[in-house]
Design a protein that fits this description.
- The chain is α+β, with helices and mostly antiparallel strands.
- Helix content is 23%, strand content 28%.
- The protein is built from 15 helices and 38 strands.
- A hairpin with a 4-residue loop joins strand 8 (136-138) and strand 9 (143-146).
- The radius of gyration is 34 Å and the shape is extended.
- The chain binds adenosine monophosphate and magnesium ion (MG).
- Adenosine monophosphate (AMP) is lined by residues 204, 206, 208-209, 221, 223-226, 270-274, 276, 279, 320-323.
Length: 647
């Protein structure tokens, strides 16, 4: 592979000369790492939680160690009570001792006698069953009447019935949880051999990275991968050490990488692997030890720049820089290797099967990862694709995990069952599922539901996507704001059978500009657009085709196509960001968004944000709670306060 740096003026990246399939890359990586001797260490039970047992453990004693009573009652000989019944009780003489927990019996139980015994007490010699105290009556100080026959062994736990001495107690590789710790404690084992947790160093790379808590200078971003990867390593049996973010400076990065490798068993970097001009980490790896790079460039989407290496027996991984790509590749390809190094079995609690509600197109020849969000219908789990491109951390917020589409498939058809890898291994099915267009007003209405312990899942797929989901019955309702040009009305013309419209709120749309811009200050919307068109230096930001806002813009513009017309972001927020950051001078957005960005605003027309409710789901408690909150005084006040007008 050619690792020479490109000259500064060369804009195109070095090509990945050899692209391996996901399967080939994994197979080669594992072949270079395994089998290997895994160091083990003794840990006290208290410190062993989450570790993998390094050796099989046999039980050194019987549990319980003696025959033990399961109830409060009397130790008896069952043969004595063969004819005892409610109508003809049998009298037994009491022996002169009481067997409490922890007291070894001194007297045998002879025929015709009984000994009082507490739950957990050792069964005395001669006795073969326990009769419950409830089935007896006192007969003076030294005798009882028994009203039931008992079978031999009744209410006795025999020695070794729980765990038998010599039995395989726990197998090597078992992840030690509270149950396992209980079993070991019951056997009196104070410490266990566990596979030493692999020490994993985590480094982020990039000049643009600032640690959370720092000040975000222009064009900088917060280091997301460092935190995610460190946590995910701990979740999967590693001992993570986050070493911070290193600038794209070869000598500095090389010394950090060398130090990290000297002190640890494994090194995970992120960023700097794209073979772009400033990307240097993969070049350094080649100098860190044999055999070096195993795969650089894997047929993944996203995740192609993934780099897998082994340096002197230690795995070195460069994850792609985009946080979602880093997550997919880490969970799919690195977690299995890490768990194997930690002596843990593959994670079984992190996979669920779910139905795909919509067809997902996929590129032939690359294994594709698709972020999904889980909801449930009568038939089981449904996995909604929610990815918004490899750069989006936001889709994480809604996602429960991801699915994988094979390299040889050009699609995953609607209705198919797919395996979903969960980011965090527990799924709580939401009480309320909202699929459609997102609005910050929704969060105000759902706030009391969350406080009442209801889990609300809101999946932003746009108005039309929401309507389709509602028609399929996959959500409780779809928030929509669809303008029908023919009838010049909002939303109602879009309803289908089984759906009904619940009015939500109105959002004032208008022109946004930076406060103090003399071209727009104090004008009407129509005048503002005229002023913008009159100034050739003025740049606009448009909206996507199909957005209600776009229709308004096109009406205002008529035939005009000013500079910026083809910049067509898909959200109200993106329009405000473009104007606030001077990438554009004006655009159209809704009032709350303009105000939140501290921009000037000229009102034009109200947009109707309503709910297409699935009638069949109307009576569900969480749905009722949502519409109660919407109609409530507090709900309306919160919406008004935020700049919306409740319908
Ligand atoms: P790179 O592979 O270094 O070119 O990074 C690709 C993209 O991921 C760039 O937009 C980086 O800013 C972004 N990125 C890289 N590292 C991180 C990180 N640790 N946290 C968040 N974003 C990152
Ligand atoms: Mg970088």
């Amino acid at each position: 592979m050619d690792h020479t740096p490109k000259s500064r003026d060369s804009l195109d990246q070095e090509q990945f000369l050899t692209i391996l399939s996901r399967e080939d890359a994994l197979a080669r990586f594992e072949a270079a790492l395994f089998p290997r001797a895994m160091p083990s260490e003794m840990r006290s039970l208290a410190d062993a939680l989450g570790c993998a047992l390094a050796r099989d453990m046999a039980a050194p004693i019987d549990v319980p160690p003696f025959d033990r009573s399961n109830v409060d009652g009397f130790a008896v000989r069952s043969a004595d009570l063969a004819s005892a019944s409610e109508t003809a009780s049998t009298r037994l003489t009491l022996n002169d001792e009481v067997i409490a927990c922890g007291v070894a019996p001194a007297l045998p139980v002879r025929s015709g006698t009984a000994t009082p015994i507490a739950t957990g007490g050792p069964v005395p010699r001669g006795a073969d069953a326990i009769v419950m105290v409830e089935h007896t009556d006192p007969a003076g100080d030294a005798a009882i009447e028994v009203r039931r026959a008992v079978s031999p062994g009744q209410f006795v736990s025999y020695a070794g019935s729980d765990i038998a001495r010599g039995e395989a107690l726990l197998r090597a590789g078992t992840m030690i949880g509270s149950r396992e710790i209980g079993m070991l404690a019951a056997c009196g084992i104070p410490e266990v051999p566990v596979t030493r947790r692999p020490r994993v160093a985590v480094l982020s790379t990039g000049d643009e990275l600032v640690q959370p808590g720092g000040v975000l200078r222009p064009a900088a971003i917060f280091d997301t991968n460092g935190a995610i990867v460190t946590a995910a390593i701990s979740e999967n049996g590693g001992e993570a050490k986050f070493l911070g973010a290193i600038p794209d400076d070869e000598p500095q990065l090389e010394s950090a990488m060398r130090q990290a490798l000297a002190d640890n068993d494994m090194l995970v970097l992120s960023g700097g692997t794209s073979k772009g001009a400033g990307d240097v980490s993969h070049r350094i790896i080649a100098r860190l030890g044999a055999p070096g790079i195993i795969a650089h460039g894997v047929a993944l989407k996203p995740g192609k720049p993934l780099c897998l290496a082994v340096c002197d027996g230690k795995p070195v991984i460069i994850l792609p820089g985009f946080p979602t790509s880093a997550m997919f590749t880490f969970h799919d390809m690195i977690v299995p290797v890490l768990r194997r190094m930690a002596g843990l079995p593959p994670r079984s609690d992190a996979k669920v099967s779910a139905k795909i509600p919509v067809r997902i197109a996929s590129e032939l020849g690359r294994t594709e990862f698709v972020m999904v969000s889980l909801v449930e219908d009568d038939a089981g789990l449904i996995a909604y694709p929610t990815g918004k491109g490899s750069g989006a951390i936001t889709s994480f917020a809604q996602a429960d995990g991801f699915l994988r589409i094979d390299a040889l498939a050009d699609q995953m058809p609607a209705g198919m069952q797919a395996e979903v890898t969960l980011f965090t291994p527990h799924v709580r099915v939401p009480d309320l599922v909202i699929v459609g267009s997102h609005c910050t007003g929704l969060d105000l209405v759902t706030a009391p539901l969350a406080r009442a312990g209801l889990l609300v899942r809101s999946i932003a797929v746009g108005s039309l996507g929401g309507l389709a989901a509602a028609k399929r019955g996959e959500c409780d309702f779809a928030p929509i704001h669809l303008f029908d040009e023919k009838t010049e009305t909002y939303n109602t013309p879009y309803l289908a059978d089984g759906l009904e419209l619940v009015p939500g709120w109105r959002r004032m749309q208008g022109i946004v500009f930076r406060k103090g811009d003399k071209r727009f200050e104090g004008l009407s919307a129509q005048q503002a657009v005229c002023a913008a068109l009159a100034d050739p230096a003025c740049i606009m930001v448009n909206r996507n085709q199909g957005a209600g806002t776009r229709i308004l813009i096109d009406r205002l513009l008529g035939e005009a196509r000013p500079d910026g017309y083809w910049n067509q972001p898909r959200s109200h927020n993106a329009v405000a960001a473009a104007v606030a950051q001077h990438r554009a001078d004006w655009g159209m957005t809704i009032a709350p968004v303009a105000h939140a960005a501290d921009l000037g605003f000229i009102p034009l027309a109200e947009e109707h944000y309503d709910f297409a409710l699935v009638t069949a789901r109307k009576q569900r408690p969480a749905v009722q709670a949502f519409f109660d909150a919407l109609a409530s005084q507090e709900g309306r006040a919160a919406l008004t306060q935020a700049g919306f007008r409740p319908a």
